[in-house]
Design brief:
Elements lengths: L11 E4 L2 E4 L10 H5 L2 E3 L2 E4 L2 E2 L2 H14 L8 H15 L4 E9 L13 E8 L7 H5 L2 E10 L16 H12 L4 E6 L4 E4 L3 E6 L2 E5 L8 H12 L4 E4 L11 E6 L3 E8 L2 E2 L4 H14 L6
Parallel strand pairs: 8-9, 8-15, 12-13
Antiparallel strand pairs: 1-2, 1-7, 3-6, 4-5, 4-6, 6-7, 9-10, 11-12, 11-14, 14-15, 15-16
Length: 294
């Protein structure tokens, strides 16, 4: 199937307070966010025409802006309303939404206090991050050679564009090997996350996940932890050594794009798509669509 370029689509994008035709939402090549990584974003999904946990995502966008040292020129309420407007304008019942904010082209140097802060919101149809047929038996993860940096070396609490450079490199290398994603270690050599999703493991009916102390504590991660605790499932946040990975029975990823994606293999380690993973995947699917979780 031919890919449709993202700069050549129909519809609308909200940009700097205005709803623009999709193809007119442009920026200059000498934009600070492009050259120096002064760009933050969110990823959130629309289910049944409603944006899941919109307010939490917008609050995190503003937190990211604060970490990156700039002020979004709109209120959180205005961004929430703009998200709803662009979702309605596109008319997708189920979709993926990307609010993004960046420093503009007024100043081109490392320091850019005079650069204007721009904000845009786009939404498009994206049914599943991973092929549903592959997910049935669990996706395959490579082990990335890149590591999540130490917390005193990057603005890790921000969902910032520059932090994804090593994720793109790791995912490209994984896909070249026939995998769907990669597991990344942190600067200490401990299990961290995948390239764009948090990771969970299952052992003896308990759920295990790494401390989010040098990577994002995802909104989907927190949602799934809440769903597990509602079912009286023990959730253990801990430092996970590479030597422990092979002892786990199940594994899955969580994220707004990934949703709950079972993992069948990480390197040479194999996992089953077991009952606990499927239960939480079902609970999450019901929750995002406003259905009652039994």
């Amino acid at each position: 199937m031919a890919l449709i370029p993202f700069d050549d689509r129909d519809g609308f994008i909200w940009m700097d307070g205005k709803m623009l035709p999709w193809r007119e939402a442009k920026l200059h090549v000498l934009t600070h966010g492009l050259h120096y990584g002064s760009c933050i974003f969110e990823g959130q999904r629309v289910y049944n025409s409603k944006i899941f946990k919109l307010e939490e995502h917008t609050a995190r966008l503003f937190n990211s802006a604060e970490v990156m040292g700039f002020k979004i020129p709109f209120t959180q309420q205005q961004i929430n309303e703009a998200c709803r407007q662009v979702a309605e304008a596109q008319g997708f019942a189920d979709a993926y939404m990307r609010p993004v904010a960046w420093r503009g082209s007024e100043q081109m140097s490392v320091s850019a206090q005079n650069a204007k802060i721009h904000v845009a919101i786009g939404v498009w149809e994206w049914p599943s991050m991973f092929d549903p047929e592959i997910k049935k038996n669990g996706i395959k993860l490579d082990i990335a050679r890149w590591r999540r940096p130490a917390p005193d070396t990057t603005p890790w609490k921000a969902k910032a564009a520059g932090l994804y450079m090593i994720c793109t490199l790791s995912k490209h290398e994984a896909e070249a090997k026939g995998c769907q994603d990669a597991m990344m270690y942190d600067y200490r050599g401990l299990v961290a996350e995948a390239t764009g999703a948090n990771i969970f493991f299952v052992k003896e009916g308990k759920l295990f996940t790494p401390y989010a102390d040098c990577f994002l504590d995802g909104i989907t991660r927190k949602t799934v932890i809440g769903l597990a605790r509602n079912r009286q499932i023990d959730v253990v946040e801990k430092y996970i050594q590479s030597s422990e990975v092979g002892d786990f029975e199940e594994c899955f990823l969580t994220g707004s794009a990934a949703e709950v994606s079972p993992v069948g293999r990480i390197g040479d380690w194999k996992f089953k798509v077991g009952k606990l993973t499927q239960t939480l995947a079902d609970d999450y699917a019901n929750t995002v669509r406003g259905k009652r979780v039994n």
